[in-house]
Amino acid sequence: MTVALKVENLSTHFFTKQGVVKAVNEVSFEVPRGGVLGLVGESGSGKSMTGYSIMGLIDPPGRVVGGRVLLGGTNLLELDPEAMRAMRGSRVAMIFQDPMMTLNPVLRIDTQMIEAIQAHEKVSRAAALARAREALARVGIPSPDERLASYPHQFSGGMRQRVAIATALLNKPDLIIADEPTTALDVTIQGQILFEMQKLTRESGTALIWITHDLSVIAGLADHVCVMYAGRVVESGTVDQVLDAPRHPYTRGLIASVPAANPRGRALAQIPGMTPALLNLPPGCPFRERCARADAACGADPATEALADAHAVRCFHPHTEALPPAAAEGASP
What whole-number distance in Å separates Cα of residue 75 and Cα of residue 22? Predict the structure, then answer.
């Protein structure tokens, strides 16, 4: 299968007066054409910052300090700002959690969507408008002609998010990075959009990175999963490998904390402690203070170990026993 995006040892650091924050630390993964990669983890794990780094949206005091981001053989990190701007919206697009990061509040929706098309293609206004109308219908917006003539403030939050998603789909880019775009939507619309995104990747060959903390979404959408913790990928593999047979203690903790995995009447399972501050992280495994399996060996930095096929884990003491049935069911859609 042809690889659409290849990320190699991507590192993004923020240089502050207090020290260096390693927000993304030697992250590597691949996304094939038409494939869906899920990036999962707690808040502050580096998921969104990985997406921003790929898109070239890191501003001072942050800086991408190492690695390569290859899109069809082109290293995005070597492009000058003008060339990267030309890439955004045409070959790579991002859907943000907050739709107002995409939409201009003082312009009508049709104006914004037409401009998004004509910025990258020489097409007539009528053709661009027809494509915008089709994109709105695809994400479940009723009466698209009426909505195109509206302003963002006339939409609900969920409707604005659907417009932002439709805008990202306009030019059928090679890669779409979605940063928890369905969090604010009701379950019915979320399911519809997930179906449309999956259909788009299969039909057009667009690669999709879906950033979320919701394991049930990943279970039904993604082909491969990368679990991130403290700026690193600690486990990766196919969705079945990672969710049905997780090896890293952190991945197991995430799955066990899904409410559906807990018997009725019993307190929800939790991962003890808090995510460590990324400012000047001490050496060793960053999860060791929260891990019941940690010992003296965890004071060193574990290497990524390849298991079966695409499955890999970064841990000195990975689990080998089967996942409890209740936890396995909880991660399913």
Answer: 22
Three-state DSSP class for 128? helix
> Measured at the alpha carbon of residue 32, what is the angle toward residues 28 and 37, in degrees to the nearest 5?
60
The Cβ of residue 186 has, within 10 Å, a number of other Cβ atoms equal to 9
Q: Domain map of the chain by residue range?
A: 1-79+216-333
Instruction: Specify the pairing of strand 224-229 against strand 232-238.
Output: antiparallel
Which residues pair with residue 39 across a beta bridge?
Answer: 211, 226
CATH 2.120.10.30 corresponds to the domain 1-79+216-333: no
The rounded distance, in Å, linking the Cα atoms of 137 and 151 is: 17
pTM, rounded to two decimals: 0.91
Is residue 330 over pLDDT 70? no
CB 317 within 8 A of CB 293: yes
Contact between 150 and 132 under an 8 Å Cβ cutoff? The reply is: no
